[in-house]
Amino acid sequence: MAITQAASAQVPAIAALAKQLWDHHEQEELQAEFEHLIKDSDCAVFLYTSGGHAVAFAQVQLRRDYVQGTSTSPVGYLEGIFVEPAHRKQGIATQLVRACQDWARAQGCREFASDCPMSNQDSYRFHLALGFVEAGRIICFQKTL
Q: Tell me, what DSSP letter sits at residue 46?
């Protein structure tokens, strides 16, 4: 069992995990996105492998625009995290977030942030358990022109 910063060769495994998190996206779309992100110096993707298979990932990016509740820039931002159901409740997500935070700190960040949909209570409790504090709530609006 190990956490590593992902390389291009691991993009198919990342995309397969990401598809389970963001199931409204196509596999090919996610693969292309992660191919780009892996090469971006403002982004890192960490993989957790068990028995030679990727079972979890976390994506962190630097955000230089305003991030709700923060006062510095850049801010390390947890863009996504997923652990396969059979591997949950073993501390893997905590280790992945720690790797993301360490990476952000090494990039000069003094703050780390994330978000979740208001309806996702599991994610909300997960964030609180990891020491995040709620910075605000937002309801987004849209209309067709």
A: E
pTM over 0.85: yes
78 with 99: CB under 8 angstroms?
Answer: no
Full domain range(s) for residue 22: 2-129
Q: Are 76 and 103 in contact (CB under 8 A)?
A: yes
**What is the distance in angstroms between the CA of the first residue and the CA of the last residue of the chain?**
51
- The 10s digit of each residue's pLDDT in 3-15 is 999 999 999 999 9
Amino acid at 75: V
> Which residue(s) pair with 2 in the sheet?
49
**Alpha-carbon distance 126 to 19, whole Å?**
20
Within-domain flag for 96: yes
| Within-domain flag for 145 | no
Q: Number of structural domains, the chain?
A: 1
pLDDT in tens, 71-89: 999 999 999 999 999 999 9
Q: Say if CB 50 and CB 1 are below 8 A apart.
A: yes
Query: Is residue 70 assigned to a domain?
Result: yes
